[in-house]
């Protein structure tokens, strides 16, 4: 079984602001003015990105890797959904459903393409994001790494979730982690 994790990358806010509203227990990491959140709630499927985005009036990029096979991305701005996508399409993989062009992979959002993702996050290179979307990868976490790099976001978000940090933090090499809401130090 492959790696499964969720991280939320917040653009347009500060670490101290996130610390005040983070859904705990969680770990926070700040790099280049962007805050990455690893929340226990996210690992349980109760995604914190929409509420953090709403509370902070910022952009939240929620990324989930499932079994290192599927990368799912959703974007919220000031709590409102912008769009989402899954690569490869999780509905086709697991639901034997073939989505038509331009249809969202999940029922509550609009489909994101590379240009829409770059516009929503407010940074990045559309051509590089498109390449990361289209390229063949063995592992979804490799695609996640390339998408994050193409968007100019911290690589700390890749391959780590709350559960992994509580179990194996000594192998984490990203920016300093701040424990909030009862997360182990």
Summarize this structure briefly.
The chain is α+β, with helices and mostly antiparallel strands.
Describe this structure in words.
This protein is 32% helix and 25% strand. The protein has helices spanning 15-21, 40-43, 49-56, 90-94, 114-121, 126-134, 140-151, 162-168, and strands spanning 5-11, 26-31, 34-39, 59-66, 70-77, 80-87, 177-180. The model is unreliable at 96-108 (pLDDT under 50). It is an alpha+beta fold. Strands 6-5-4-1-3-2-7 form a seven-stranded antiparallel beta sheet, with helices on both faces. It is built from eight helices and seven strands; from the N terminus they run E-H-E-E-H-H-E-E-E-H-H-H-H-H-E.
Strand order of the largest sheet: 6-5-4-1-3-2-7
- The shape is globular
Structural class: alpha+beta
Number of helices: 8
Q: How big a fraction of the residues is strand?
A: 25-35%
**Main sheet attributes: strand count, strand direction, barrel closure:** 7 strands, antiparallel
Arithmetic mean of pLDDT: 89
SSE string, helix = H, strand = E?
A: EHEEHHEEEHHHHHE
The number of E-state strands comes to: 7
Q: State the low-pLDDT regions, or none.
A: 96-108
How much helicity do the residues have?
25-40%
* Head-to-tail CA distance between termini: 28 Å
How large, in whole angstroms, is the Cα Rg?
A: 15 Å
